[in-house]
Queue: 4 jobs
Job 1
Amino acid sequence: MDFIVETSARHIHLTEAAIEALYGSGATLGVKKMLSQPGQFACTNEKIKLVGPKGELMVSVLGPARKACQVELSFTDARALGLKDVPVRESGDVAGTPGIHLVGPAGELDLAEGCIVAKRHVHMTPADAAAFGVSNGQIVSVKVDTGKGRAVVFADTVIRVSDKFALAMHIDTDECNAAAAFGEVRGEIVA
């Protein structure tokens, strides 16, 4: 059995307060396209500039609004921005992470924390987890072989189970490049 492997490029999740600070009073996030995870979407023309000690990057905003701001980067992105010690974390675990300066079309905001490299993971429903014989929080290895001479086994991949998820693995752009995982890519649990 296998599943789709999707590349999650650099992006940011914002709180309602951050949306208003960056886009103006009463601002809301427009839906450009729905993503594979139910209820999650890429926003219409809502880009944010990240300003780090060494550089700047534009990132897409993903909705809906969250309880905490979270910037998801690759290690290459973090180096380009001049950020040090950006940890690999599961989504939502931003305590004690580096902060960054945000510039939007109507304002600016300093985040005290929130920058992570997202831990690679496989989203599953409870039925998917039962079919694969895995459980929430379990660490597995996933083989990705695109036939392009760059087969990779991604060890230390966390299984995330919720009835709000759809079956898909998420990797960052550095991991995508290492595996030549361009286009439609499938992965399989091997350990």
Job 2
Amino acid sequence: MTELLYQTDSYLKTFEAVVTAVDSQENGVVLDRTAFYPGGGGQPADLGTLIVAGVGYPVVRIRKAGDDVVHIVEGPLPPVGATVTGQLDWERRYRLMRTHTAMHILCGVVWRDYGASVTGGNMEPLKGRMDFEFEHLQKDLVQEIERKINAEVAAARPVRTAILPREEAFRIPDLIRTRINLLPEGITRVRVVEIVGLDLQADGGTHVASTAEVGPIRITDYTSKGGINKRLYVALEPEG
């Protein structure tokens, strides 16, 4: 079982771990703990390097395998029991943290002010898209939403995370913002992310500590995906 360090500290850039298993078929390494996010919820997996005895192994892909996280690397596999230093591609990770928090700001504003549920979303560093159940979406409304989300950035709202028992988490009103509850029944503990005073929802990804770190958010485009499904595209500046 891999301890997921990123769940409690998104700012961890390096960490020490031990190799608990290897997979020669996909050149994968399982660690007892990791700060690498394996992807999910629209957020891509992290990239970086594992260093063993002074030798760097680029991490080119990561995936969950039950309770383990498999780090697919380039080069010969380190032995089981080896001590590893993990180093994240921090510039990429931090941009994803800012982007993911921007998506939560957008989701929070749209839910609070328009009552629209999320029907889908995806992101990459500094840009993303999110789909909502809007019947109509015109330019004036898009501009209004952009003003509101940037007001939340300027408010420098704290962003907090917690891991709660499933029953306690599901007593939170509107915990699940997607149209369909995507949390499997077998999950007994739920990680929640709160933008204080704006948004509180179940989420497993990584985020910045304040909305101020996100920087200006631009809605670059919008389109109809059929019926009441409308898509908003957002972009951030390279530096917040």
Job 3
Amino acid sequence: MFVFPRSVFLAAALLSSPRPEAAPPVEILDLPIPFSDARTRAMLEYRRTHEDPRATDLSIRPRVIVVHHTAIATLPASLHAFERPFLGKDRPHLAKQGAVNVSAHFLVARDGRIHRLMPETQMARHTIGLNHLAIGIENVGGTKETPLTPAQLEANIALIRWLSARHDITHLIGHHEYRRMESHPYWREKNATYRTAKRDPGPAFMRALRERLVDLGLSGPPSGP
């Protein structure tokens, strides 16, 4: 059994919620990834390079939720991928655009447990062009051998409802849909050549999410290929 390397706390889902009636409580395990001074400086440099040269901090006002999968089989290995402060040599294309490691706000295990890795009002590096206003939800797995599970679907539904009650969320997209947001006013990316091809979490998972969340009235990406 995996033993968490740091203290785990139950998060009360209704704390500081401006609209608690809009979503039921959600059990969230706080499992913060390390954000050293060096990582914070590198993340701020990334923000200045790609979004706002005048930025002085990493605060964001979330408007978009982006759903991802890790393509890594286990929770410990997925968590480990986010813990290091800087990118390794295995991701040279991303490293050329900024040394700071990728990150996300939430990580959902295959059994449906929700882990919060960082505050949702702090900028993470997870989606080109949208990091300045997007909350990233990562799901463990997503490969042929470790497909996303019904428990993860239910957890994502509950988490998105909770986040929508706490923040002025207008859009819900899958990572594979992010480039269709280039035509939207939310998009900010100063480097016109900095793009990646993404397949996560896939159309089927997003379709299932949207069918269950239609009452929230969240927009998807603009129409496009």
Job 4
Amino acid sequence: MKKYFSLMLLFVLALPVWGQQNKNHEVSSDVKELTAYHDVIYPIWHTGWQQKDIKFLSSLVGDVEQGYKKIEKAVLPGILREKKAKWEDGVKKLGVCVDMYKVAASKSDSVSLLNAAEKLHSQYEAMVRQIRPVLKEVEEFHQVLYMVYHYYVPKDEFEKTKEAAAKLKVKAEAIEKAKLPERLKSKEESFNKIRINLTAVVDKLNQVVKTGNNKKAVDQAVDGVHAKYQELEKIFD
């Protein structure tokens, strides 16, 4: 009996830790199966394709296929739920590249295999860009907003929403100071306009929560922040 109670106590004490770890995973934009596939893509691109080593490329067919099967079964973390449709489309396109790679390798068609390796690499990179945040400042903002939008507001956890609103203000200010990488300079004008608007709706949210727990007003203010964040993300689609 004592052993039973000891086990139950350990289980209860572990629940908060498990819950926090689960939340941490949910707000991470990493898909471990896609990250792991880099170990397959790297030698294909930097050794096999660069050196035109057809024998080496052919030897990697098994790794290419097994890694892809894991990506097919991957479950996106909650923070990427709005990218599910694009992710699934990307997985299908990656599958086409994998099939091309396998066929070319089976026929010992060197030209087709090199082309397939290039397309496989290109599609993998496209999928990484698809889920990778453009800026760490944008990712950090989204991590806070995700908890507010999907947990605190639906559960009417006002104090947590109020604390998060203050954090969002800090994160929005960091976005205002952030610099786009050179490859995205063409997006700078749109980015500057939206990030100023994002700060404005975050300020409005903070004003609303200071007046007390008016659920309707809080919901509307959070919806406004979420909508503006989506506009910000759409710039980089």
